[in-house]
Specification:
By secondary structure, this protein is of the alpha/beta class. 43% of the residues lie in helices and 12% in strands. The protein has helices spanning 9-28, 35-42, 46-58, 62-77, 100-110, 114-125, 134-168, 170-178, 184-194, 229-243, 251-261, 266-271, 345-352, 376-384, 418-423, 456-463, 478-495, 499-512, 522-532, 554-557; strands at residues 198-205, 210-215, 220-225, 276-280, 305-308, 327-331, 353-354, 364-370, 389-393, 396-397, 407-409, 415-417, 433-436, 468-472, 560-564. The chain has a seven-stranded mixed β-sheet with strand order 7-8-6-9-13-14-15, with helices on both faces. It has a five-stranded mixed β-sheet with strand order 3-2-1-4-5.
Length: 567
């Protein structure tokens, strides 16, 4: 709920003043730029002024509102008037009012301790009021008051972000609405019940800045990074390009992205004792494997488990998975028009699916449908049987066109489109995990791609009832994927780990060298040798894996992502 809806207009006004002051500073620095460039940079800033003026008028603060409107007039005429920067009225800023100053000062004093205060509040609240000492009661009241200030600040931030996305219009406004940020307070109770150090992190990308919203079971806060969409996109795609070839050094790009995306909230995550990060991503950030960011010492996978938090998966976040899994394994190994063969798929399925009591290789009991046996009707029939796990090893094409343009490759070269899935009888409601194990099953293409297609087939399956989806962000090595998947299911089944925990363990085992070709079942070793001997790609800033850890490069372990329920 925004600050206005909660009756906290004073706080909203304070933060809108900060936004207007930031725009004023920007305008003052643009006088030497080309006129058309000035217009393009400031074209969407007027709503910031109007929103503040409306709030001030609503409170009867007409003199302040008139000042804001005068500044807006400067905005409207800025394209046509050039002035000397030293005397430029656009340097005008708005001071905090007497009523706003104490509130702002208190938030400034506690802003770096909000999460710690939330943790303290939870501990004190757990003590029955009649059992608290006078000192504990006094501290409880003080902490609660500080959290009220922090909550007001957070809601004011949401109000400003809402205005900024509305100013962008169209798809960006819809993208903001899809985040359902007005329900974040309710999500705190969900995080508390999930446990495992779960923290929800929203990233919202604007042309001139990045907003990071952190929600823990006990507190909410906002951090802002002065880096806009263009530069963030450049960093993301630069890193993805490096990750496509396991001979390229990933560390400089991984560390640069860490400084932008995690460093601003690192202290907050530490205060929350965060161990599982539920990420709500925006734009090109959806193409990024956060587990492969690096703080200068370690990849983030050493510290956190990760799951994507999506609108499609909210309803099943707390659904308890079945303790013992059965599996339906479906795959395509033969090539088709426009698609290369996947020769390791039969071995992958054989190592995962235990077809009967005499099958010593497989991990999960179930059945396999391969090549011609994998048809649309066969998929529907397999889902009717209600397996907790559906593992599909095939190509998936997700494009930015219509539902008919995006499809899953079936046996014999047939296509199962998103439109077919929506219209047909494919009951995913009992599925704990849908695994899409093949090339770029989460990532689409096309010049209009902006990250929304990353959810792809997974989002549809979640909307149809699947609790979680595992997919890949780039074309993974066919052989090493078989080992990754086998170990994921084995560790989840034998050690009773969560899905996020099992994925993290396997990623760490790839990184450390615990898992490598000579530790794999014999059937997988040939495919893995082929993967390691493949085209290394451009030899820029060469990466040499540590001795005994041939899969240490993020190319092998980082593309796997988990969407939705990570339990």
């Amino acid at each position: 709920m925004t600050a206005e809806r909660q009756g906290q207009v004073e706080q909203a006004i304070f933060y809108r003043k900060q936004a207007v002051n930031a725009v004023q500073g920007l305008r003052a620095g643009l006088t030497r730029l080309d006129k058309e460039l000035q217009r393009s940079l400031l074209d969407d800033k007027a709503p910031v002024y109007r929103g503040l003026a409306d709030d001030l008028i609503g409170l009867g603060r007409l003199a302040e509102a008139e000042q804001v409107m005068a500044m807006l007039k400067e905005e409207e005429y800025f394209d046509f008037v050039r002035r000397d920067a030293a005397s430029d009225a656009r340097r005008t800023t708005l001071p905090a009012s007497a009523g706003e100053a104490p509130w702002a000062q208190r938030y400034a004093a506690i802003s770096d301790r909000v999460v710690a205060l939330g943790q303290e509040y939870q501990s004190l609240r757990a003590i029955p009021a009649e059992q608290r000492t006078p000192e504990q009661q006094a501290r409880f009241a003080a902490v609660k008051a500080d959290l009220d200030v922090a909550r007001a600040a957070f809601n004011a931030y949401l109000a400003d972000i809402d205005q900024a996305f509305k100013a962008e219009g169209g798809q960006r406004r819809d993208a903001y609405a899809a985040q359902n940020l007005d329900s974040l307070r309710a999500q705190q109770a969900t995080l508390d019940r999930l446990g495992a150090g779960a923290v929800l992190v929203h990233y919202l990308v604007l042309p001139d800045k990045l907003h990071i919203l952190v929600t823990t079971p006990a507190a909410q806060l906002h951090r802002e990074v002065k880096l806009g969409a263009a530069e963030i996109n450049r960093l993301v795609f630069q890193y993805r390009d490096i990750l496509q070839a396991p001979t390229r050094d990933p560390l400089p790009a991984a560390q640069a992205l860490y400084q932008v995306l995690i460093a601003p909230i690192a202290a907050d995550l530490a205060q929350a004792d965060a161990r599982t990060l539920m990420l709500s991503l925006d734009g090109a950030l959806r193409y990024l494997p956060f587990a492969a960011l690096n703080d200068g010492k370690d990849y983030l996978v050493a510290r956190y488990g990760f799951a994507l938090y999506t609108p499609a998966g909210r309803g099943a976040l707390e659904r308890a998975p079945q303790a013992s899994w059965r599996i339906a394994g479906l795959g395509v190994s033969r090539g088709a028009e426009g698609w290369s063969p996947l020769p390791a798929v039969p071995v992958e399925l054989d190592e995962i699916v235990r077809s009967g009591p005499d099958d010593q290789a497989g991990i999960l009991p179930g059945r396999t449908l391969l090549d011609d046996g994998f048809s649309a009707d066969a998929l529907a029939a397999a889902l009717e049987d209600g397996p907790p796990v559906v593992h599909i090893a095939s190509h998936f094409n997700f494009t930015s066109g219509t539902d008919v343009d995006s499809y899953l490759l079936l046996g014999g070269g047939a296509h199962l489109t998103l439109a077919d899935l929506k219209a047909g009888n494919y009951p995913f409601g009992g599925v704990d995990l849908l695994t899409l194990s093949a090339c770029q099953t989460a990532l689409g293409g096309g010049t209009a791609a902006d990250g929304r297609e990353v959810e792809g087939f997974g989002a549809l399956a979640q909307n149809e009832g699947a609790a979680a989806v595992m997919a890949t962000l780039w074309s993974v090595a066919d052989g090493s994927t078989g080992l990754f998947m086998r170990e994921f299911y084995r560790r989840r089944q034998e050690s009773h780990l969560s899905k996020a925990g099992a994925m993290r363990e396997v990623q760490l085992a790839f990184l450390s060298g615990e898992l490598r070709p000579d530790t794999a079942p014999a059937a997988l070793r040939g495919a893995m040798r082929a993967a390691l001997a493949g085209d290394p790609g451009p030899k820029v800033a060469p990466f040499v894996p540590p001795p005994g850890a041939p899969f240490a490069h993020p190319f092998y372990w980082a593309p796997f992502l988990l969407m939705g329920n990570w339990l």
